Amino acid sequence: MDQYLDTTDADWFKPRLMGVMVVISAAFVVLIVRLLYLQVIEGAEYQRLSAINSIRLQSVDAPRGLIYDRNGRLLVDNRPAFDLSIIPKDAKPVGQTLTMLSRHTRIPLVELEGQLAKYRGRASYKPVPLKSDIGRDLLAAVEVHRFELPGIRVDVRPRRNYLVERSATHALGYLGEISEDELASDVCEDCRGGDYVGKTGLERALEGHMRGKRGGRQVEVNAAGQVVRVLKTVDALPGKNIFLTIDAELQAVAEAQLVGKAGAVVAVDPTNGEILCMASSPTFDQNIFITGVSREAWQQLSSDPYRPFENKAVQAEYPPASTYKIITAIAGLEEGVIDENTTYDCPGHLRFGNRTFRCWRRAGHGTVDVNKALAESCDVFFYHVGTELGIDRLAWYAKACGLGSPTGVGLYPEGRGLVPTAAWKKKRVGVSWQRGETLSVAIGQGYNLTTPIQLAMLTAAVANGGDRLQPSLVKSIKTAEGHLVTQAQRKLVGHLPVNPTNLDLVKHGLWTVVNHTKGTAYKARIEGLEMCGKTGTAQVIGRKPGVNISEEDLAQHLKPHAWFVGYAPAIDPKIAVAVIVENGEHGSSAAAPVVSAVIRHYLLGPVPEVEEGAGVVAAVDAAGATERSN
What we know:
It contains 22 helices and 23 strands. By secondary structure, the chain is α+β, with helices and mostly antiparallel strands. Helix 13 packs across helix 15, helix 13 (325-334) crosses helix 16 and helix 15 (379-389) crosses helix 18.
């Protein structure tokens, strides 16, 4: 019985054991076949994929083009900066890596997380910028703990460096991190998040020239995303270098004259339209936008009532005041309303309709011809001329002289100014033009608006004999190797609507302004150099008829703006300048000395600082002691 049971159990177990063995053998066969397939048939492909997984491409930023002044002085270059970024794919767990990074660098964790969130949706293998320009101390902290920070990398990138602090800020412009809107636009085809692009000035206008072409390198990385070795490098192509028309020394002189004031200076070569200096005050340091401007600094700048971000030379619009009398004189002479012998009596006022229009000199100027009217800025003379011309003829000459439209200097945005006409007022205000309003326009008040650069180009056109030129800020553009790409050319955009004889009459009047004892800018003359010019005092608020308010009683921000436009030498001029000093009260005392200082430096060279300062102060004091003059 026992023997029978043993045989039965063996017969039952043996076939089942064989079945298990068959299954196991089959599994091993499948595994071996799969291994043979992967290693022999697909081995080469998987080896390629493995190599790809450990080899990556890294971009190399191109150095931005350098900026020089007209004499080859370097104004803007690049410096090395260390930028911190994270590759989420390599940094897992990302939260832990960011926590460790914050601990070692003391960068607030919320700031790091905010940067990562800003680029949510980006491919996990692409670097996300965390903090730019971290400095050598933070760089050392990252490098010491690099094995604890997978996916964290530091790249050396060229960073913009403005060498002369607060100089030519508005003309040069500044860089800022590219925005989402700019990325979506055609600002730069090769731009990526975290890149810096021109935001204002020439940095913006010449972005395509100065940007350069991005390079790259092929690197091998380990499991933590850290570079093991560089396999191949394609060098970046640096941007093109810009040579400006600006003279850095003259720029410094102009800016020194504007310290503590709000206003602008534009100096131009009347022979070719090249801008010799362009100053706007107050100003700011562009470098703060490269290192990262604080919220406090931004609020302070943006809330400043004197508008430091505004390029007053190009963007700001002011009533031209008595500088506009140049246009009224040209229009009157060309239309035959006056000639060199025409005179009007100035008793200090002109009665027109039921209103009295006063001259700035209450005692009057007596008998006045066009030369004396320009020299002493007689309002009554130009009231008569404006009345005879009418607003539309006067407006035609203003537009033909370049007012009311951008000059094309190439800086964005540029103010247009305003040349009022009867049709303009009807459309804008819904009321017909009143003849009495023409009197105000004829002396540069009323609805008139102009920019400093427009008046600088008008003055240059008068100086050179009537050629209206397009202003230029760029003298040439060259490659990093020094090969010429483009050279600025003199660009004629029109002619003043005046014949040579009449223009000579106007120019003689402008000569008398500075060189005759009764000229409104006589105190600003330059010894040994004949300068021509025109003063202007632009009212900020209107004066109600019958209400006389002393300018001394006005709040500072309500005092008139001071203008002066001038050129020199009188024969064969080499420089033309326009200056506006906001709330400076009188062109003769606030603006004319600034023009004198700029012209004197450019044509006669620098003078000893004490002597120069004393001369300017003396000129201001002497001019201020005279009667109020336009």
